[in-house]
Model the fold of this input.
Amino acid sequence: MKTIDLSCLGLTEQLREEAKRYEGYYPGRVSSQAKDLFRVITEAGELTAQVSGKFRYQVSNPAEFPAVGDFVLVDRTTDRNGYGIIHHVLTRRSVFARKAAGETDALQIVATNIDTVFLCMALNRDFNLRRLERYLAIAWDSGATPVVVLTKADLCSDLEDKLRQVSTVAVGVETLTTSSLSADGYSPVKKYVQAGQTVAFIGSSGVGKSTLINRLLGEDIIATNETRNDGKGRHTTTRRELFILPEGGIVIDTPGMRELGIVGADLAKSFADIDEWATQCKFRDCTHGLEPGCAVQQAIKEGHLDADRLESYKKLQREAKYDGLNSKQIEKEKINEMFKGFGGIKNARKFIKEKKR
Done:
């Protein structure tokens, strides 16, 4: 039996060292999930597994359960003698998450341990700059590197103008243009596919994610459908799934997501232009509304900044509970959220000092 090199699946030396702390278990990577069952790729192949009773009892948040892309520790490498048992989830390098539908604060993990996240948007009726801003804010917050992928270039009659518009919101982010008509229409994304690297495709239904992934796989593994007459896509991918590419890289396909509820956002990176203008405001706590000496409002008046972009920025601030905060204050809020169990970062530092005595 051919052994699978988990290094090609992204298992780093750091994760291997972490796994050694748990004797008797084998590392693997979650490739898909169906209710309470997970498919896990190990060195000996793929097996079906479920979480242990102890793991289920100890988990306090659904987001801590295994997700597609996670590296986990299982009690076996094949399921010839029954389902494998997942005992631990190794430290996540990156987490792409969104607010779960219908819940106030519930977190839904889309995928983990992603190196590059392709934010896909079609150049026809799906084109929406405000949605792209939302995708970028969440992508930067995830820890992965975002890349904008504009699909269906063959259906666009004003490509240069669309690219100009995207450049105003995708600050510091590479933008790729693809077409499903030509055989090499997917080549711009191929350079990101390398052994040990994980890429994920995020976007609305019908933007061409599955077509691009099929091209990378070299065969039509994922079903694709024609776009509806109203320009919206039909849901072809119904669950998150991880695939091993011929070149050795990893790709994660996700169901179409027209809306992404925000649970965390890196507004400093996704709205770096507004942050830059804000440094010139008269008041440090300027809300960019009616205050005198607001450099952001002045930039809008002079045509350097789109008023809709500022409104989008404020909307995402409210959703992420960062309303009225600047980038430094937002980072402080994130740190305090991480240590809220200790009553904030100051109390966490105090606790650590007392433990060292």
Remarks:
- Confidence is low (pLDDT under 50) at residues 227-237, 341-345.
- The first strand starts at residue 26 and ends at 34.
